[in-house]
Structure formats: structure tokens, C-alpha cells
Amino acid sequence: MSALFRLTSRAVALQRSVAISQAATLQRATSCRSIKTSPKKDETVAAPASVTTEDFANPSPKNWMSYGFDYKTEADDRKATKSTFFFAVTLCLVWGTFYWAYLPDTQLRSWAQREGFLELRRREQAGLDLISPNYVDPSKIVLPSDEDLGNTEIII
């Protein structure tokens, strides 16, 4: 319990020292900063122009942001993006998952389970034990002697 108390007090002390160092860093940073109060050129408010259907049909190329596949033309960038996502999502994820789910049993799990049930049925019909008591040859098992065990309690 005392170890838990010491650990907790050390953690609290560490948190306090981190908070103090952060406050000192913040105080140093704010004392070095200066505020610029010069007026900006584009501070005037302008009413937005009316939007027509032509604006939607022909968007301005200056507002185009590349997806990272082609930095020169917007059309090639969009084509590359769509084809990449089609192959990645549709072919790899969807069809890959479908293929993996319906693969044959490569590790023979269902075969082993079937064989186990057949062996259990055969042993029941023959009147044998389900598992042989001499599954491991008793002559190969090495047990400690009574002197080695001493007063050790043996629970069976």
C-alpha cells in the first residue's frame, strides 16, 4: 500500500513539474511575440456574385486541388483517383474478401473434425472407452519416488 502511495505522489510531483515548465515556456513565448496592427488590403466585405448553371458546369481551374495522382491536369487526376479506388475497394477488398471466405479448407479442419466424430462412433459401437487409458505407454512415464515427494500433498 505504501508503494502505491509513493508511486501516486511521484506521479503528482511529475505532473506539477511538467505544468510549471510548460507555464514558463508559454510565458517566455508570449513575451517575445509582437502583434501587427497594420490594416489588411482585402478587409472589405463584398456581396457574392449570383451563381448560374454555367458556373457549376465549368468550375474555375484555380480552385482545383489535386488528389496526388497527377498535378498537371485535373481530368487525369480524377481518372487516376477513380480507377485506383475502384481497384482497391471493389476488386481487392470486396472480391478478395469473397474469395478468401469461400476458399477450400486448406488446413483440413473440417476433415479432422469428421474423422474425430467417426472414431467416437466406432468406439461407442465397439463398446470401448472413448479415450484409451493407456494412450501413452505407462512404461515411458517416469514418476518421482516416495522419497523425492516427501510430505508433498498429492491431489487426484
TrEMBL record:
Q: Where are the transmembrane segments?
A: 84-102
User: Mind telling me which GO cellular component terms the entry cites?
Assistant: mitochondrial inner membrane
Keywords linked to the UniProt accession? Electron transport, Membrane, Mitochondrion, Mitochondrion inner membrane, Respiratory chain, Transit peptide, Transmembrane, Transmembrane helix, Transport
Q: What is its main location?
A: mitochondrion
Cellular location of this protein? Mitochondrion inner membrane
Membrane protein topology class: Single-pass membrane protein
InterPro entries membership: NADH_UbQ_OxRdtase_ESSS_su
Its subunit composition reads: Complex I is composed of 45 different subunits. Interacts with BCAP31.
Q: What is its biological role?
A: Accessory subunit of the mitochondrial membrane respiratory chain NADH dehydrogenase (Complex I), that is believed not to be involved in catalysis. Complex I functions in the transfer of electrons from NADH to the respiratory chain. The immediate electron acceptor for the enzyme is believed to be ubiquinone.
Q: Which family does the entry's similarity section mention?
A: Belongs to the complex I NDUFB11 subunit family.
Instruction: Spell out the protein name for this chain.
Output: NADH dehydrogenase [ubiquinone] 1 beta subcomplex subunit 11, mitochondrial
Starting at the broadest rank, the lineage of the source organism is: Eukaryota, Metazoa, Ecdysozoa, Arthropoda, Hexapoda
